[in-house]
């Protein structure tokens, strides 16, 4: 496990303490041990080294004393800042963006997730290839003749442009491949839209309990265990969007999706790359924002989630604020007030109440109607039995009289069989 120091500039960031705590958690998620922390209160970062000269010297001394191998900076650094800090401290320099990208790369399992992360990594590397190329040139030309400086620089610049074109080609090729892989997902989404089935997306901060919530919904309804979502008490345990069809005891059904979690200052490369994965949220009929109420920074997490949703174009969709881990926070649960639901994802009564809330919100346009289905039109009776919540059935001389709770589309389809009340 690599020993690291984390550091940042206070004046540059809102909620600095919160983001530093989060940075330490991100480091732990990437199998690093945080052995020290440095902070500097200056008006703005130093252009060459991010930290001031005195602080850079302090970092080097602290790293030597603590036997730290790397410095993780709570910001996205310029290529020159990374190079200069490495030279002056002798440490590996990792900025916040690179750390998150590395975590995503280690968590990606499906083809879609791997492609999305690789695209984001290459986009991050693109403006930074100059540093690597210059370092390589320095090694190649060290001790060379003094008259070749200009020629070498020109060769280096040509190589940099070549490297840049190679990366751009890779990004273009990966995007094309991603588009092909995602065609099936898009086709499935269109089919669901055409079938008029409702959809719900679980969104929220990483490790808030989205996957646990989804798995306990599946368990309660005894849906096949093979459909369970991977869950673990760690940041970014899942990167893929998991989609499951939920069929309730009264035959109402909806699609439930578990989306990738968010984090403050999520790199724009990842937001862009994961837009298609988050399309399930953008097209949902209802969003459930899962929030860890036991975390003292939960209000900031709500802001981060809503900011990220806005960045991917999610707007105007009804939302339930689901405050999870109420057991850890010592808050009574389950309870509901307006669009706020307090619960524990591992508690059966909480999941039952959540399903009740979803039913009320998703199916409020359903109506109870009475239909008289002639015996010769038995296929429509089968349709009602399959898709509607049957409340009463009577057999009469001219057909089956059936009272059922139905969706607007099914009501329209069977309009000619509706029995008007006197």
UniProtKB/TrEMBL annotation:
The protein's name: GTPase HflX
Sequence positions that bind GTP: 204-211, 236-240, 258-261, 324-327
Family from the record: Belongs to the TRAFAC class OBG-HflX-like GTPase superfamily. HflX GTPase family.
Residues reported to bind Mg(2+): 211, 238
Record GO cellular component, one term: cytoplasm
Lineage of the species this protein comes from: Bacteria, Bacillati, Bacillota, Bacilli, Lactobacillales
Signal peptide stretch: none
Job description of the protein: GTPase that associates with the 50S ribosomal subunit and may have a role during protein synthesis or ribosome biogenesis.
Cofactor section: Mg(2+)
Keyword Nucleotide-binding: yes
Domain of life of the organism encoding this protein: Bacteria
Gene name as annotated: hflX
């Amino acid at each position: 496990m690599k020993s690291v120091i984390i550091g940042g500039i206070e004046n540059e960031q809102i909620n600095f303490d919160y983001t530093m705590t989060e940075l330490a958690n991100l480091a732990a998620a990437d199998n690093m041990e945080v052995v020290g922390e440095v902070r500097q209160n200056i008006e703005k970062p130093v252009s060459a080294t991010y930290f001031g000269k005195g602080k850079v010297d302090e970092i080097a001394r602290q790293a030597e004393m603590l036997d730290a191998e790397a410095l993780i900076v709570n910001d996205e650094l310029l290529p020159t800042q990374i190079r200069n800090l490495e030279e002056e401290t002798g440490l590996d320099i990792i900025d916040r963006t690179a750390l998150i990208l590395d975590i995503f790369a280690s968590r990606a399992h499906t083809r879609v997730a791997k492609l999305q992360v690789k695209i984001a990594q290459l986009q991050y590397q693109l403006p930074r290839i100059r540093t690597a190329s210059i370092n390589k040139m320095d090694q190649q030309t060290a001790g060379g003749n003094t008259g070749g400086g200009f020629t070498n620089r020109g060769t280096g610049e040509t190589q940099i442009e070549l490297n840049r074109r190679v990366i751009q080609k890779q990004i273009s090729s990966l995007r094309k491949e991603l588009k092909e892989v995602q065609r099936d997902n898009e086709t499935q989404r269109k089919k669901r839209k055409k079938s008029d089935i409702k959809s719900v997306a679980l969104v929220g901060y990483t490790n808030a309990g989205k996957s646990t919530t989804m798995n306990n919904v599946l368990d309660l309804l005894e849906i096949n265990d093979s459909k369970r979502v991977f869950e673990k008490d760690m940041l970014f345990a899942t990167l893929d969007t998991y989609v499951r069809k939920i069929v309730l005891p009264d035959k109402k059904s909806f699609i439930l999706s578990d989306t990738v979690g968010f984090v403050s200052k999520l790199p724009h490369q990842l937001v862009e790359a994961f837009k298609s994965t988050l399309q399930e949220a953008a097209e949902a009929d209802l969003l459930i924002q899962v929030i860890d109420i036991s975390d003292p920074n939960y209000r900031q997490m709500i802001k981060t989630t809503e900011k990220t949703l806005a960045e991917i174009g999610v707007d105007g969709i009804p939302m339930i604020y689901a405050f999870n881990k109420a057991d850890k926070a010592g808050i009574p649960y389950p309870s509901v007030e307006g669009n706020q639901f307090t619960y524990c994802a591992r508690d059966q009564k909480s999941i039952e109440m959540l399903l009740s809330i979803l039913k009320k919100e998703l199916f409020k346009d359903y109506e109870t109607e009475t239909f008289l289905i002639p015996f010769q039109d038995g296929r429509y009776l089968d349709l009602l039995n399959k898709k509607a919540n049957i409340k009463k059935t009577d057999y009469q001389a001219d057909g089956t009289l059936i009272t059922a709770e139905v969706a607007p589309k099914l009501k329209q389809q069977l309009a000619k069989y509706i029995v008007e009340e006197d």
